[in-house]
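Problem 12. The chain below contains 259 residues. Write out its predicted structure in token notation.
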Amino acid sequence: MRAVVLSLCLVIAATAYAQAPTSFAEGVLAFEKGEWSKAERLMRETIARNPNESAGTVSIAGSWFETYVPHYFLARALAKQGKCAEALAAFAETERQGISPTISDFARHLRTRGGCKPQSTPTQPKKVIKEVEVPFGEEEIVPATTTTAPVVTPTATAIDVELRQTRTRLAAVVTAYLRGRYEETIRLTERPFTDRAAAGESALFRAAARDALYRINGDETLKPQIEEDLRTYRALRPNARPDPRIFPPRLIAMASGVR
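Solution.
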């Protein structure tokens, strides 16, 4: 049953990918690297080609998928550059389309507007229509209350929750690695992933982080750990190849078993 569900997820992801310009994945990578102006440019290109956000996911790198929400990423990139007027407009648009508010991590940034505060509308003084003196001892009139039906919030299925948690964790790993936080990358991959593909990608990023630390510090004890991580990656992802946009050629060769 799980294989069927995962296959269905892959079909949905493939559909979204077919509708997503390549500039979206490139823009997400630029955003995670902190290249805000580049991310802005790429997201504007994406929106020009397909402005409709979708609950489907797009492959960014390996098992890293992101929901197709270019207005959201544009808003975040603009806010990071202090372009608050444009950022607020983009936040409003992604919120209007209704996809990003359903994802908890995205919804959190929607609430804060990336640090850009909307301009408050000056409040007009209330007009006093008529002042009436209430005699002492008059019975207090209690306004009638109206009962409203409780709002029922649809709950996500366990599989949906697991997939989103996996994507969120893997995205955190990718972000840490791209920003040069190699020890944090290793720490984030210590807890195993239940999904086979995600576990393989996690091992690859752990190997890349350890290899970077080895090249920086020359710590020989890291070498057998790197080799073990790469063996795990090859076992879990036998037909995959590391993304050359993210990993250096040296690590790609090592991951392929080339010495």
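Discussion. The longest helix spans residues 196-217. Students who got a different answer should revisit the alignment rule from Section 12.3.
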